[in-house]
Design goal:
Strand content: 25-35%
Shape: globular
Number of strands: 15
Helix content: 10-25%
Number of helices: 6
CATH class: Alpha Beta
Distance between the termini: 35 Å
Order of helices and strands: HEEHHEHEHEEEEEEEEEHEE
Strand order of the largest sheet: 6-7-8-12-11-14-15
CATH architecture: 4-Layer Sandwich
Number of domains: 1
């Protein structure tokens, strides 16, 4: 199982009117089912335990809660167990492009809410696969792009997940430690309202500022 330090570095804990709010993007629960893996990682169980023990009052998931586009019996069981473990936390889900029929499971839990986007305290929370909603906001958090960057040192190249900021938009990496990110130059093109951006500021999950990168 992934160590909690992985989840902590790939998430954000912010203060909102809901209380201490944990923010994650792109868990892609059930990725084993669509990628032909013969083993079960039990990733979603580890993630739920991390959330439950984080002390957060609320959890915001920036889309792609699940990976398979459909909703098989096995995936439904995985999602039911995941949400059951979070019954003491308010869960807001900004629906992603992989989240078809998610409401069939989430609707069974009164603490779970699924919308296209959320506006909370002047902050916009969305997945990022569609056009920007026509509402006013001060800052926006999104996923979808799975930002990553290749660090080179001493002839060795290493691809790492990053947080990517373009003006008022902060793009979170996938919280799933088993899924590699996309290079920011390609991944950010997946976000319609960021395609014309010319540069991006990058931060390592540890908070280290990498600087600006041309797109």
């Amino acid at each position: 199982m992934p160590p909690f330090s992985d989840f902590e570095s790939l998430s954000l804990l912010i203060d909102t009117s809901l209380g201490r709010t944990l923010l994650i993007a792109d868990p892609h629960i059930g990725f084993e089912l669509s990628r032909g893996l013969r083993i079960r990682t039990h990733f979603e169980e580890s993630l739920a335990q991390f959330v439950a023990e984080s002390g957060a009052d609320a959890l915001i998931i920036l889309g792609d809660v699940k990976e398979p586009l459909g909703l098989s019996f096995r995936l439904k069981e995985m999602l039911l167990r995941f949400f059951s473990s979070l019954k003491d936390v308010r869960v807001l889900i900004a629906k992603g492009n992989h989240d078809g029929r998610l409401e069939e499971v989430a609707g069974k839990f009164p603490n779970v809410e699924v919308r296209e986007h959320f506006l909370l305290d002047g902050r916009l929370f969305l997945h990022g696969h569609t056009r920007l909603p026509k509402i006013e906001f001060e800052e926006a958090f999104l996923g979808h792009a799975h930002p990553a960057y290749t660090l080179k040192s001493g002839g060795v190249a290493r691809k790492v997940k990053v947080f990517a900021r373009i003006n008022e938009f902060l793009v979170l990496p996938t919280v799933n430690p088993y899924i590699e990110g996309f290079d920011v130059r390609e991944g950010l093109k997946l976000v319609p309202f960021l395609r014309k951006a010319t540069e991006v500021e990058l931060f390592l999950p540890e908070g280290i500022y990498l600087g600006r990168v041309r797109l």
